[in-house]
Amino acid sequence: MEADQNARLFRLPFKFPSFAGLRRISVYLSGVLYAVGFWLFLDAVIYSKHANASDVHVTFVDWIPFLCSTFGMLIVNSIEKNTLLQGALSGGGMSSFAGSDLDSSMAWQARVVLFFGFALLAGGLSGSIVVLIIKFLAKNYNTYPTVGMGVNNVLGNFFILMSCVLLWIAQNMEDEYSYSLTL
Amino acid sequence: MEFKVSPLTKIISLSGFLALGFLLVILSCALFHNYYPLFDILIFLLAPIPNTLFSKSGSDNANFMSDTPSNVQDTGNFLTGVFVTSGIALPVVFYHCQLIGALSCVMSMIGGLIIYTSIVVFSWFFHSSWDQEEDTLFG
C-alpha cells in the first residue's frame, strides 16, 4: 500500500499507461489517422461521381498524390530500423574492418530508400496542394461544395502523412527503450 | 467479479446483441430500399481478424524475448484501427455523398458498432477461459 502510494507522484484518478501500452495506443491512433485520410479522399471521389452538380470531376490526376503518399508510407515503414541504427553507429567511426564496410554500404542503401519514401510522402502532400490550386482555385471554382473535393484531397494526404509520422515515432521509441534495457 | 454468470447466459446474451446489430443494419437498408449500408457489415466482420491473426505469434514472441510488442503485432493493431475507423467513416461518407439518408447512416453505424463490440467481447470472455483450461490441462 505504501509502496503503491510512493510510486505515484500525483493523486490522479487514472493511471498513466505503461510504455508498451503507450506504444500500442499510438499504433492504433496511427491506423485511425490513416483511415481518416483514406476516407476523406474517397469521400471526394464518391461525391464527384454521385452528388456533383458542377462540371469539374475527380479524374486520375487527383489519385496520383494519394498513391504517392501510400507508397511512401509503405516504403518508410517497411525499412528495418536496426539497419539505420547500425549505420549510424559504425558509419561515423573510421574502422577498417571488411564487415563494417558492408554495414555502412547497407546503411547507405537504407538511407537512400528512406529518402525516396519521405520524398514520396512530401510529394504526395505538395502534389495535392498543386491539384487544388491548378484544378480548382485557378479556374475560379471557389464556392464550397465544388472546392471541397480539392480540400478533401489535401486533408486526406495530410492525415496520411501524420499517420506515417506517428507510426515512425512509435517504432523508434521502442528501439530506444529496448536499447536502454539491454544496456 | 462478485456474481458468477454461467457461460450459457453469456453466449445467449451476446448472440442477442449480435442479432440486434444485424437487425439494425439490415433495417437501415430495407426501410429505405437502399442496400449500400450492407458494406458496413462486411467491414465490421473483417475488423476483428487482424488482431486474432497476429496477436498469437506476437504474444509468444513477447513471452519469449521481452514485454514490448513486436512488429507483427503492430501490423495487427494498425489494421484494426484502420478497419474500425473505416466502419464508422463509411456511413458518414455515404451520407455526405447523398447515397443514404441521415437515419439510415446513424442506424447502420450503431448496428455495426454493436456487431464489432459483441465479437470482441465474445473472444475476450472465452479467451480467458481457454487459458484456464490450458493451465488445468498442462499444469
Automatic annotation (TrEMBL), chain A:
It comes from the Eukaryota. It is a multi-pass membrane protein. Keywords: Membrane, Transmembrane, Transmembrane helix. It holds the Pfam family UPF0220. It is found in: Membrane. InterPro entries: UPF0220. GO terms for cellular component: membrane. The chain crosses the membrane at residues 25-48, 60-79, 112-138, 150-170. Belongs to the UPF0220 family. This is Vacuolar protein sorting-associated protein 68. It comes from Torulaspora globosa.
From TrEMBL, chain B:
It is found in: Membrane. One of its GO terms (biological process) is late endosome to vacuole transport via multivesicular body sorting pathway. It holds the Pfam family Vps55. It is a multi-pass membrane protein. The chain crosses the membrane at residues 12-31, 75-95, 102-126. Keywords: Membrane, Transmembrane, Transmembrane helix. GO terms for cellular component: Vps55/Vps68 complex. Its main location: membrane. InterPro entries: Vps55/LEPROT. Signal peptide: none annotated. The keyword Amino-acid biosynthesis does not apply. Belongs to the OB-RGRP/VPS55 family. This is Vacuolar protein sorting 55. It comes from Torulaspora globosa.
